[in-house]
Amino acid sequence: MSYGHKPVLLDEVIEALKLRADGYYIDGTFGRGGHSREILKRLGPQGRLLAFDKDPDAVKSAKTDFVQDDRFEIIKGSFTMLAQYVKQHELHAKVAGVFFDFGVSSPQLDDAERGFSFRFDAPLDMRMNPEEGLSVAEWLSKADETEIANVIYEYGEERASRRVAKTIVNARAESPIETTTQLAELVRKAVPFKRSRGKGKEIHPATKTFQALRIFINRELDDIKDVLPQTVDALCPGGRLAAISFHSLEDRIVKRFIRDQSSPKEYPPELPIMPDESDVKIKKVTNKIRATEKEIEENPRARSAVLRVAERC
């Protein structure tokens, strides 16, 4: 299947990483390799690029497109395996740059059979790795009403989460909820259409619920919290972390992590202890970077993208 995938904020990411021809780099979210391809173009014979991806289709794509490049390696699995790999290959404090493009990829959204989007009538799956764990349909068939409501509220910031959960539970008592269309229609009954601010476009009522269930079923936010400290330990002095987020929940985690790691530990004012600058592990390189109007026009997905960059002290 062909997807015209366009990597988001490509020029900005390449600039942020300050690529060295002989550097060792990690792409934690390979997708279809848009960013990886540009990184490899700038590496010399001694440079190396390691990539991770949970998605079997992404791994297959990587092994096909980069099969003859011995500077490249891809691992099928979560980027939370980063520390394990770094330890095994004695790369602690030797990695020159780490990049993440968090969230679901365009190919996953555009493949109807993956069940990520309510644009298509498809099995209600949403797993980034369909070979592991429960699908959304399986989880919804077992979870209680309170749990469903909490997930939709916490990960989708949907104010009508309790109403949506009640509608789902009542519906599944009659018949299983197995397709994206079924779920989208149930949410539509529970949540009215809303217009986006200033644009006059209607936002589908199921948008937040689908986002919430996808994030939850794939442990997306937990994985981000897990991997960021691993990244700092892997980076060499002067090595760069570049992370793209697509919604506020992801971006908030990255922003707070960079803030906390770039500030000395605080002690109660009554203790005679001065802040220790040696506690500072990274420094913020930029405030958030957004796509240009030109890129957004060419690639609408870039509209919500936020890039944050930090450097290892």
Short précis:
The protein is an alpha/beta fold and 313 residues long. It has helices spanning 10-17, 34-41, 56-65, 82-88, 106-110, 136-142, 145-156, 161-172, 180-190, 207-217, 220-234, 248-261, 293-298, and strands at 24-27, 48-53, 72-76, 95-101, 194-195, 202-203, 235-245, 282-284, 289-290, 306-312.
What would you note in describing this structure?
The chain has helices at 10-17, 34-41, 56-65, 82-88, 106-110, 136-142, 145-156, 161-172, 180-190, 207-217, 220-234, 248-261, 293-298; strands at residues 24-27, 48-53, 72-76, 95-101, 194-195, 202-203, 235-245, 282-284, 289-290, 306-312. The protein has 313 residues and is an alpha/beta fold. The chain has two domains: 10-107 and 220-312, Vaccinia Virus protein VP39 (Rossmann fold, 3-Layer(aba) Sandwich), CATH 3.40.50.150; 129-217, Putative methyltransferase TM0872, insert domain (DNA polymerase, domain 1, Orthogonal Bundle). The strands form two sheets. Strands 1, 2, 3, 4, 7, 8, 9 and 10 form an eight-stranded mixed sheet that branches. It has a two-stranded antiparallel ribbon with strand order 5-6. The longest helix has 15 residues, at 220-234. The mean pLDDT is 91.
